[in-house]
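Can't paste images in this forum, so I'm doing it all in text. The chain is below; anyone willing to post the predicted structure tokens underneath?
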Amino acid sequence: MKKFLFKTRKNSTIGGLLVLIIIVGAFYLWKLHRNDGSIINVLVSRTPTLSPTPTSIDPKIKDFGLKIDKLNILVPVIKNVNGSDKAIYNTALKNGVAHFKDTALPGEKGNIFIFGHSSAEIKADYSKIFAKLNDLEKGDEIIIFYQGKDYKYKVKNKDIVEATDISVLDKGKKEILTLMTCWPIGTKDKRLIIRAEPVEK
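Text version of the structure:
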């Protein structure tokens, strides 16, 4: 008799658990259906999706532009800007970063010299474009778009120089990319210089 009662209680407990699981499951499915109108739609919508990768770049940037993924920079480069005339270069820097007049161009031997603002000296879209330039480290990638081609460079070093140091414009014998901005951020005391070498293909 005791054996029979024990089995009955055990079977009753298992049966109760199964009924509870069925009720909870049915409630959950009903809730999904009620909230979205379709259980399948809810399940599909909960599947993680990847954001689409941009497939195109503005033609103006592809003609001459700068891309630094680490700093989330994608900006037009204004070609042949007179870096000695404040009015001229400030006008250019409202539209992107500036390529210093008569310095090399991508694919040529020599110093490709590009400069931009790091603080809101002017009220424009690109007034802080180089604010995080100091975050670059040796080996980081920089891409220059020029006339529809991509030129890749790896950061070689960075330096702080005096604002009057024009040696940073020296042409040199090998292709090198130089990026420059004012330093420290919000001042014009010195200049932050990033040097990058072309990646051999």
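DSSP finds four helices and eight strands in the chain. The beta strands are 64-68, 73-81, 97-100, 111-115, 141-146, 149-162, 176-183, 190-198.
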